[in-house]
Amino acid sequence: MANSTMTADLPPLPEYTIKPLPDLLPFISDFWLSLILPHIAYWVMSAIFHVIDVYDLFPQYRLHTPVEITQRNLASRYEVARDVILEQFLQVGMSATLSLTEPRQMTGMEDYDVAVWATRIRLAQRSLPALLGLLGLNALSISKNMAASYPLLAGALAGGHYPFLTTPLDGTTGTHVPAFATWEIVLAKLIYWGAIPGIKLWFGIVFLDTWQYFWHRAMHVNKWMYTKWHARHHRLYVPYAYGALYNHPVEGFVLDTAGAGLAYKVSFMSPRMGLWFFVCSMMKTVDDHCGYALPWDPLQHITSNNAAYHDIHHQSWGIKHNFSQPFFTFWDRFLNTKYTGETKLKYDRNRKLAEAREKAVATKAE
């Protein structure tokens, strides 16, 4: 498909031809990549933390001791891995459904879309003389005075009038047409490639955080939902990385799978952008359950919602607090559910109880 649009007093919009966007990787289609990449990220990150955990590489940054994992958790590692894999099969099905309902992502219109934004910027400049007039300034007079020294600024003050900016229409007729100023194109690119994707990503994050906060909190307030669904996740009093998605299948679908899918849809992300959104969400979820407060882990410093923050929610004394997940904590702050009490003594007590329990078991075995 080709297109060319021109208005007499505005720079013409470029022609474009759209075609399917090439796959991100040459050896796998974007469809299959979208199904497996989030889960590859999940297990790679989990494996890294598992190695750190098993070999006790950074004991100074542990939130819990190895003894607590064995003595306090009510689910075996096998049960956790089994239920996580089950949920991931459900997520693959959801991802496939989303991908199949999306039209093929196309490319070729990028320069045209940037030019459309540049046109909007040019049109917006037409209001400058009137706005400056409200302040008692004569924009046209100011523009004439600085035309020689600052022609681009003068053109903007004159309402986006740049008679000196032209470009050949084609290589044969010699006809010249208006052209955009460099700053207009740069600003248009910042809007198109930066601001718009950033707004979509931010909206998706806020939607997902909102969805998960209120569903998560409801599963604690409603006794039936807690005992039937959410209690399974809280069998891990001492979370570890690959236990992040250890949930009842219903909870996993409602909280994680549907939440992320809806966030992707309502924010109008492109399929390629959605892929990275799902991968980042998965990595953040794993990191929030890793059981370590690593000072060099960037995911634990982007926001205050990190492993230490979420770990409080997994403790019996913090279970009615810190519902926010996976990115920010604004709902906990706004609705006064952020835990603000003392933690060190409580963690020390849990640690000592676990050690005493292990000694009792060892003594009984003898």
Automatic annotation (TrEMBL):
InterPro entries: Fatty_acid_hydroxylase, Sterol_Desaturase_Related. Pfam families: FA_hydroxylase (PF04116). It comes from the Eukaryota. It comes from Coniochaeta ligniaria NRRL 30616. Keywords: Membrane, Transmembrane, Transmembrane helix. The keyword Transmembrane applies. This is Fatty acid hydroxylase domain-containing protein. One of its GO terms (biological process) is mannosyl-inositol phosphorylceramide biosynthetic process. Residues 203-337 form the Fatty acid hydroxylase domain. It is found in: Membrane. The chain crosses the membrane at residues 31-52, 190-215. One of its GO terms (cellular component) is endoplasmic reticulum membrane. GO terms for molecular function: iron ion binding; sphingolipid C4-monooxygenase activity; sphingolipid delta-4 desaturase activity.
